[in-house]
């Protein structure tokens, strides 16, 4: 015990988290499922000297020993057990993080399997049942991971390992294989947003460094999304995975492979149907726009897809769709715009006359967008007839004065664009109305 | 707005020959292309009518090809289409032509939306039975093979559900091919497909020859049960039930048990949960010997699993497990191998676990008999009756009848009472509601004396609960009690207390009197109703709150059939007539309803009913029940009264006028 680490590395950040997670976990449910089935007795680790206190020739071996020690898992649900050993492992992990960041030549070939083993032992675990079936990520507080004080350092260490200048993917690929990636992807379902954030970085680095795993990673993400859309509607890490995909799409080579197009049409577009869209919509819209910037010819299938899944009862989602559509229109090529303007503006005409003022307002904001305005102007002979009757009607009938004011501006813009047509349409509209009255 | 999609864009082919009999299909096709989903949906739902009109030949040559082409529509329309086609065999000319239905269903079986796909598979399964063996091999089996080797996961998923329906009637060579296809789907690299295959594994095993089960299904089962995804592994547990039923004990031990043992200790709680959830089925499938050797120890582990979900699922199965043990030696097994674990669960940290146990534990008393129950189970029951979670206590109380048969409820009554009283006063009205529902049962088992002494006051207190649902339940509870204890008891204990409330300053309580009378009059009979209840009702006709007055009218209508004609003529009629002239529209309406009901009974006595006294129900009154009558928008007669009521009264349940 005498040689117990006397100078714990700075850990303020970690402590800030730990207290909260323990308190949280006590109220809630175990986050360390299935790992402590037969551990009743206290855990004893023999304290090792600090790496900096031994001659550099002995450091590699000590490093391996420390990695092995860190494979021991503690039960953080029991806040009283093994306190000393938990603290020892924490400071050891901290030391390892520093060591791998600073030291040169520490990544020998033997260390790779040990590093991966230590990381696997710590992070791979069956996630516990969600607190309730009705867990609503927007409303409910997430259950935080009780073992975060250790887990965070393990993630931190793993990221430093992957980012180390000495890191050699050709050696690591023996250990960081498909099975490893699969288990990593399962962890994205973790309820703890801090963990998902680390996972995002880890997966991004792995995707970047291991060319051989790229297709596999994309395919598995595909499977996760398809299951999410068509089977469970439950997966906590969708936003994080989409964020990674956003940067992956950015790097796709042109022309796009059929696989990537299929991913866009058969996976990303159906993701819009999910109830919890608001949790990942920003990332999803980003991915879609990335695709369209790569290959404008995809605009038509994308917009038709959005039309197909246009929300019918959920106004909140409708506002999100309108937002995404504007992002798409911001980058649309005029030649593509012509192809989809009819179905598109039929939908916009419906939105503009929505009794929900936020929907109507969001749609009317399009007319503040200069680029969209220029597109409308170029095609006013097609768009004006589609929009006219809706606009004219709500200018008289909408309950919300702000909407009426916006509609007047839009009508005025149309009048300036194409006054002949505007007058014709006004006349037709009025005579139609009259005919209805007469009838 | 929709210039392009108007009529006239229907296919020229249907119209071109100027044949009038094709008009229906032209209309249908036009409607199928209509912009309005609802119209498209309607026309799809009328598909059989249209097909009937067209005749079998045209249905085959024109309608089906058209439908096959339209498969890009909204999922709602596709779902309706998939369902319709399952019943279409007759409309295309019977079994000889059933294969005509395959192309559209094949496309539907490949769409993304799960409900549509599942419905298409269901219809295909239905149609497969209508194929002749020759047609099955010529048309259906190739379809299954095409789906099974489709590019996108959806078609392969759909294929999984079709193997078992075509296998039994196929020739040996084709059978081998079918098995081959199923095998490859079980190791598909898309987990969605493996899940579909795993969920159909049991079904497929049942139609296979025993040799193939052993040589092919078992290895597939073993593989799926050790899949890298827990969502696949847990489905293998389900398949295990079916497979185990097919094998002899020796084969079972050698081929299936190692995998099942492994599943019971899987690292994923979802798989262990599945084992717990399917425990009774597994127990029956493997038979008593293996149950004793393997399942009981596995069950013990599940009962002390680290995940509450698993423990709760296992706790639910305790009674069934014990019931299904062989009678010989059952008691010893339960006492030595199950009960110690149950005792632990009684003080589990998770309320779902405790409540799951409480819902079945009473059932053990019949199995274990009187002595064991008193010695071992009773302390557990008593502990659970004191549990902090109301659901646990309720579950015990709701199953008291099991114990009553074995040891008599008296053993429990000392602990029962505080538990009941506490539940009766629980802050959550749903808990109070639940305990009320058990009152008649408890009353029957505890006997009238005990009831009068301890529980009667509770039942009366519920009548003035501030939640309407509780008052309503309390009212019907009284009726059930009277049915149990008889009219004399009612007259002495219940009726006087109910009638006193007619003078309560709170109009809600006064209304409760009326509701009680409605409920009790029939059970109490003519004498009590006429002598004790009627005068009170009549007196309340002069109440200053309109709600009370029109409930008087409703009550009079309700108790009318029980009264004799004299009482009706002399007492009820004048009061109703007076209410019929009330200034309040609602009171008038209900009074007139009541008058006409009473009049029907009195027609022989020439009860003078003028035409204008019929419930003429003017337009406004037609919607009577729909008119919201919240305190906020009332006509004013409420206002002075409402202001007298406490805040909780107003905020409490005020759903409708009675």
UniProtKB/TrEMBL annotation, chain A:
Segments of this protein annotated with the region Disordered: 1-40
A single MF term (Gene Ontology): protein phosphatase activator activity
One BP annotation, GO: signal transduction
InterPro entries to which the protein is assigned, alphabetical: ARM-like, ARM-type_fold, PP2A_B56
Feature: compositional bias, Low complexity: 30-40
Short name of one Pfam family: B56
Compositionally biased region (Basic residues): 20-29
Superkingdom: Eukaryota
SUPFAM superfamilies, sorted: ARM repeat
GO cellular component terms, A-Z: cytosol; nucleus; protein phosphatase type 2A complex
Functional summary from the UniProt entry: The B regulatory subunit might modulate substrate selectivity and catalytic activity, and also might direct the localization of the catalytic enzyme to a particular subcellular compartment.
Family according to the record: Belongs to the phosphatase 2A regulatory subunit B56 family.
Protein name: Serine/threonine-protein phosphatase 2A 56 kDa regulatory subunit
Lineage: Eukaryota, Metazoa, Chordata, Craniata, Vertebrata
TrEMBL record, chain B:
HEAT repeat locations: 24-62, 101-139, 178-216, 217-255, 256-294, 295-332, 338-376, 377-415, 416-454, 494-532, 533-571, 572-607
Gene Ontology molecular function, alphabetical: protein phosphatase regulator activity
Chain ranges of the Phosphatase PP2A regulatory subunit A/Splicing factor 3B subunit 1-like HEAT repeat domain: 288-369
UniProt KW keywords: Repeat
Domain Phosphatase 2A Regulatory Subunit A helical: residue ranges: 99-282
InterPro entries xrefs: 2AA_helical, ARM-like, ARM-type_fold, HEAT, HEAT_type_2, PP2A/SF3B1-like_HEAT, PP2A_Regulatory_Subunit_A
Repeat is among the record's keywords: yes
Domain of life: Eukaryota
Record has Repeat as a keyword: yes
Name of this chain's protein: Serine/threonine-protein phosphatase 2A 65 kDa regulatory subunit A beta isoform isoform X1
Lineage of source species: Eukaryota, Metazoa, Chordata, Craniata, Vertebrata
């Amino acid at each position: 015990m005498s040689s117990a680490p006397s100078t714990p590395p700075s850990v303020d950040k970690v402590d800030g988290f730990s207290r909260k997670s323990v308190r949280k976990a006590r109220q809630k449910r175990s986050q360390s499922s299935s790992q402590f089935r037969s551990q009743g007795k206290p855990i004893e680790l023999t304290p090792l000297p600090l790496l900096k206190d031994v001659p550099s020739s002995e450091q590699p071996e000590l490093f391996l020993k420390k990695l092995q020690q860190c494979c021991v898992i503690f039960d953080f649900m029991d806040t009283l057990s093994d306190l000393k050993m938990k603290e020892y492992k924490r400071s050891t992990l901290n030391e390892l993080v520093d060591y791998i960041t600073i030291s040169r030549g520490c990544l020998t070939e033997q260390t790779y399997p040990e590093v991966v083993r230590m990381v696997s032992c710590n992070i791979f675990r069956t996630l516990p049942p969600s607190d309730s079936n009705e867990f609503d990520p927007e409303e409910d507080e997430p259950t935080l991971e009780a073992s975060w004080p250790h887990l965070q350092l393990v993630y931190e260490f793993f990221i430093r390992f992957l980012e180390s200048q000495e890191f050699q993917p050709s050696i690591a690929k023996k250990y960081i294989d498909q099975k490893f990636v699969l288990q990593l992807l399962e962890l994205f379902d973790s309820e703890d947003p801090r963990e998902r954030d680390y996972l995002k970085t880890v997966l991004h680095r792995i995707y970047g460094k291991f060319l051989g795993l790229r297709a596999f990673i994309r395919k598995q993400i595909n499977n996760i999304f398809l299951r999410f859309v068509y089977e469970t509607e439950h997966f906590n890490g969708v936003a994080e995975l989409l964020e990674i995909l956003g940067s992956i799409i950015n790097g796709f080579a042109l022309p796009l492979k059929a696989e990537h197009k299929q991913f866009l049409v058969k996976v990303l577009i159906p993701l819009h149907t999910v109830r919890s869209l608001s949790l990942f919509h920003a990332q999803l819209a980003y991915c879609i726009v990335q695709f369209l910037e790569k290959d404008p010819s995809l605009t038509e299938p994308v917009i038709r897809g959005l039309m197909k899944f246009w929300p019918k009862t959920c106004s909140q989602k409708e506002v999100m769709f309108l937002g995404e559509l504007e992002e798409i229109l911001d980058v649309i090529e005029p030649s593509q715009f012509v192809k989809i303007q009819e179905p598109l503006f039929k939908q916009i005409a419906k939105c503009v006359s929505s009794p929900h003022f936020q929907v109507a307002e969001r749609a009317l904001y399009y007319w503040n967008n200069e680029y969209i305005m220029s597109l409308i102007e170029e095609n006013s002979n097609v768009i004006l007839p589609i929009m006219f009757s809706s606009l004219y009607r709500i200018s008289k009938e909408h309950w919300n004065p702000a909407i009426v004011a916006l509609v007047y501006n839009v009508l005025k813009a149309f009048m300036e664009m194409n006054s002949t047509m505007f007058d014709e349409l006004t006349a037709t509209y009025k005579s139609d109305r009259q005919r209805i009255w007469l009838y | 707005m929709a210039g392009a999609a108007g009529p006239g864009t229907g296919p020229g082919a249907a119209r071109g020959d100027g044949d009038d009999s094709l008009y229906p299909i032209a209309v249908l096709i036009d409607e199928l292309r209509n912009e309005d989903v609802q119209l498209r949906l309607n026309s799809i739902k009328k598909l059989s009518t249209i097909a009937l009109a067209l005749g079998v030949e045209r249905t085959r040559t024109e309608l089906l090809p058209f439908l096959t082409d339209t498969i890009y529509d909204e999922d709602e329309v596709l779902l309706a289409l998939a369902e319709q086609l399952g019943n279409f065999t007759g409309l295309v000319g019977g079994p000889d032509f059933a294969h005509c239905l395959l192309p559209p269903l094949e496309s539907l079986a490949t769409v993304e939306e799960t409900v549509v796909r599942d419905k298409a598979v269901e219809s295909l399964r239905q149609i497969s039975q209508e194929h002749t063996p020759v047609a099955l091999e010529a048309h259906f089996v190739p379809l299954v093979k095409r789906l099974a080797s489709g590019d996108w996961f959806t078609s392969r998923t759909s294929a999984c559900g079709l193997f078992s329906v075509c296998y039994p009637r196929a020739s040996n060579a084709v059978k081998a091919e079918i098995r081959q296809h199923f095998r490859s789907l079980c190791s598909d690299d898309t987990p969605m497909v493996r899940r579909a295959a795993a969920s159909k594994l049991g079904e497929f095993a049942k139609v296979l020859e025993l040799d193939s089960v052993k040589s092919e299904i078992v290895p597939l089962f073993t593989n799926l049960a050790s899949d890298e995804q827990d969502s696949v592994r847990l489905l293998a547990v389900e398949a295990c039930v079916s497979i185990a039923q097919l094998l002899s004990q020796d084969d079972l031990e050698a081929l299936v048990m190692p995998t099942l043992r492994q599943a019971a200790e899987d690292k994923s709680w979802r798989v262990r949960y599945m084992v717990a959830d399917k425990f009774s089925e597994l127990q029956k499938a493997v038979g008593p010997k293996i149950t004793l050797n393997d399942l009981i120890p596995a069950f013990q582990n599940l009962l002390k699993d680290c995940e509450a979900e698993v423990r709760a699922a296992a706790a639910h199965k305790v009674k069934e497990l014990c019931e299904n043990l062989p009678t010989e030696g059952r008691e010893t097994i339960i006492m030595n191998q199950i009960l110690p674990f149950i005792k632990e669960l009684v003080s589990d940290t998770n309320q779902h676990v405790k409540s799951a146990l409480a819902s079945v534990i009473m059932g053990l008393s019949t199995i274990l008999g009187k002595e064991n129950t008193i010695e071992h189970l009773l302390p557990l029951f008593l502990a659970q009756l004191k549990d902090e979670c109301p659901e646990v206590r309720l579950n015990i109380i709701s199953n008291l009848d099991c114990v009553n048969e074995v040891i008599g409820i008296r053993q429990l009554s000392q602990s029962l009472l505080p538990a009941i009283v506490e539940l009766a006063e629980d802050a959550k009205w749903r808990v109070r509601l639940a305990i009320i529902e058990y009152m008649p049962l408890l009353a029957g088992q505890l006997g009238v004396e005990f009831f009068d002494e301890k529980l009667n006051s509770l039942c009366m207190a519920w009548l003035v609960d501030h939640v309407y649902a509780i008052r309503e339940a309390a009212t019907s509870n009284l009726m059930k009690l009277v049915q149990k204890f008889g009219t004399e008891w009612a007259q002495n204990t219940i009726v006087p207390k109910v009638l006193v409330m007619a003078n309560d300053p709170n109009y809600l309580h006064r209304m409760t009197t009326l509701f009680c009378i409605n409920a009790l009059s029939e059970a109490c009979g003519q004498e009590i109703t006429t002598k004790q209840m009627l005068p009170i009702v009549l007196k309340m006709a002069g109440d200053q709150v309109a709600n009370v007055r029109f409930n008087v009218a409703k009550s009079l209508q309700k108790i009318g059939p029980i009264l004799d004609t004299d009482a009706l003529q002399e007492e009820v009629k004048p009061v109703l007539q007076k209410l019929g002239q009330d200034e309040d529209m609602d009171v008038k309406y209900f009074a007139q309803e009541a008058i006409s009901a009473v009049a029907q009974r009195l027609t022989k006595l020439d009860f003078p009913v003028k035409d204008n006294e019929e419930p003429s129900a003017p337009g406004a009154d037609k919607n009577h029940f729909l008119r919201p009558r919240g305190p906020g928008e009332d006509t004013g007669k409420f206002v002075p009264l409402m202001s007298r009521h406490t805040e909780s009264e107003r905020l409490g349940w005020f759903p409708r006028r009675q």
